[in-house]
């Protein structure tokens, strides 16, 4: 009971004392925003004071906007601690460094229109969690606890959980990569892998080449670390190789960052011939290729493309960033970097100095799931599920939207160029009708993409896909009428 230390002072009106007491509790942090106050009846009975005094105190605090009574629920604190002259107060926003400011400024979760309850959102490209087999995960958890014992909860190794590294080395071998002289570092997903690569291989102002459009998180990481991004336009089958060569010659970049399979946001799968050309070019000019291998497993129709790394044989010019995030358990935050042993050894020290290592429990859980055959079964199931959704979304887009081009061959999203309609204008109109999507411009490191949009569909029911795309189509028609 918050009034346990309340002492009555005979010379001051009771209601004033109660008011003051509650204010002190709020200022001391004992009562937080949202805390429920005892009822006036309870307070009057505990303090042995008239109920009217308590009611007056509560009413006064309510009129000052400090508490609020909600009919049938009670009275709640709505104001948090008040500042006093005694408090140690700093202006934090004046103390952020450039890195912090840039991360904040580039955070699309804060800058783009938010999802509200009841909206149909095409923003996300996260996998559908209903497909995750939670019972299997529970069994795997029991297995690792039985096999590993309590040491699984102790410190592990910076490089990662050995059985997972061994699994992933074999997994990459099956993809055609020669693993001799290469090694793996386990990371917290692509996002950490790429941040590590950029922070150890570039200095402020260095040039990195990438596709345009590209993964928004990669743009954010590069900009936040002060990298000079030179973006190379994409053609309908992937990066423009001629422009890539020109940029390599002009800028002598530190690396090329590329997403060859089910590219985000376009969904393009770069064909073998183009992969070879990109590889040959970078090899000729000694430019490391940082290959983002996410989504390779999401094969729908075309035959599987070996990663660019598989072209390098015993060479070490390609760094492969692996992630299963779009397929399986992105919440575990487990990804990997496959690269030359010397590079991995250095990254291992960086990992140790940053976070020591990724959660061993999470790595072991993923490892058990991968090793016991669950993964193969699951991938077959999700491929079919997502392919059907993808085909359904494409049909609805073709039936409802007027567009210039639909990109790509799969993934968990569709990238559309509307041709002559401003996607942000369309988004504003759709937002009013409870539908949101990703405007294309956020994927372009420079300017561009103003007529493009990305529709993520993995977590939407067919009913919502149909309804949402219909609304987008109607909004588009409205805008076309105005121009
Ligand atoms: C191009 C690309 N690479 C990698 C990832 C996976 O990132 P992470 O492993 O950090 O979840 C994503 C997720 O959206 C992506 O779009």
From TrEMBL:
The keyword Magnesium does not apply. The keyword DNA-binding applies. It comes from the Bacteria. Residues 12-80 form the HTH gntR-type domain. One of its GO terms (molecular function) is pyridoxal phosphate binding. InterPro entries: Aminotransferase_I/II_large (IPR004839), HTH_trans_reg/aminotransferase (IPR051446), PyrdxlP-dep_Trfase (IPR015424), PyrdxlP-dep_Trfase_major (IPR015421), PyrdxlP-dep_Trfase_small (IPR015422), Tscrpt_reg_HTH_GntR (IPR000524), WH-like_DNA-bd_sf (IPR036388), WH_DNA-bd_sf (IPR036390). This is PLP-dependent aminotransferase family protein. It comes from Inconstantimicrobium porci. In the C-terminal section; belongs to the class-I pyridoxal-phosphate-dependent aminotransferase family. Pfam families: Aminotran_1_2, GntR. Keywords: Aminotransferase, DNA-binding, Pyridoxal phosphate, Transcription, Transcription regulation, Transferase.
């Amino acid at each position: 009971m918050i009034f346990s230390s309340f002492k009555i002072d005979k010379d001051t009106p009771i209601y004033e004392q109660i008011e003051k007491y509650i204010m002190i509790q709020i200022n001391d942090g004992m009562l937080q925003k949202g805390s429920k106050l005892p009822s006036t009846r309870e307070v009057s009975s505990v303090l042995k004071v008239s109920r009217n005094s308590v009611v007056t105190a509560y009413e006064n605090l309510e009129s000052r906007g400090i508490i609020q009574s909600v009919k049938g629920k009670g009275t709640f604190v709505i104001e948090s601690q008040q500042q006093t002259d005694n408090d140690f107060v700093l202006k934090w926003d004046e103390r952020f460094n450039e890195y912090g400011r840039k991360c904040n400024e580039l955070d699309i979760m804060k800058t783009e229109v938010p999802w509200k309850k009841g909206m149909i959102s095409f923003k996300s490209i996260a996998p559908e969690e209903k497909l995750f087999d939670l019972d299997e995960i529970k069994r795997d958890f029991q297995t690792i606890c039985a096999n590993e014992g309590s040491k699984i909860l102790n410190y592990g190794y910076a490089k990662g959980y050995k059985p997972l590294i061994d699994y992933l080395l074999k997994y990459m071998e099956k993809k055609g990569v020669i693993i001799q002289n290469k090694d793996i570092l386990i990371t917290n997903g692509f996002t950490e892998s790429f941040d590590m690569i950029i922070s150890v291989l570039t200095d402020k102002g260095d040039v990195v080449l990438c596709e345009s459009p590209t993964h928004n998180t990669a743009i954010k990481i590069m900009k936040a670390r002060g990298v000079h991004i030179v973006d190379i336009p994409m053609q309908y089958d992937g990066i423009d190789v001629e422009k890539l060569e020109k940029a390599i010659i002009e800028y002598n970049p530190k690396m090329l960052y590329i997403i060859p399979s089910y590219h985000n946001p376009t969904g393009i799968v770069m064909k073998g011939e183009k992969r070879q050309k990109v590889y040959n070019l970078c090899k000729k000019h000694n430019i490391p290729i940082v290959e983002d291998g996410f989504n390779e497993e999401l094969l729908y129709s075309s035959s599987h493309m070996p990663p660019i790394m598989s072209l390098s044989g015993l060479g070490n010019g390609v760094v492969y960033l692996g992630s299963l995030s779009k397929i399986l358990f992105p919440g575990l935050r487990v990804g990997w970097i496959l690269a030359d042993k010397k590079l991995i050894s250095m990254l291992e020290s960086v990992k140790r100095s940053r976070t020591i290592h990724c959660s061993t429990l999470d790595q072991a859980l993923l490892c058990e799931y991968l090793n016991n055959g669950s993964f193969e079964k699951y991938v077959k199931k999700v491929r079919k599920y997502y392919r059907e959704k993808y085909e359904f979304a494409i049909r609805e887009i073709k039936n409802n939207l007027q567009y210039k081009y639909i990109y790509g061959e799969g993934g968990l999203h569709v990238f559309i160029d509307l041709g002559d309609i401003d996607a942000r204008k369309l988004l504003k109109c759709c937002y009013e009708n409870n539908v949101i999507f990703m405007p294309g411009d956020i994927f372009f490191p420079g300017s561009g993409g103003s007529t493009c949009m990305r529709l993520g569909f993995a977590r939407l029911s067919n009913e919502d896909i149909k309804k949402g795309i219909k609304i987008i189509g109607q909004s588009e028609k409205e805008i076309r009428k105005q121009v």
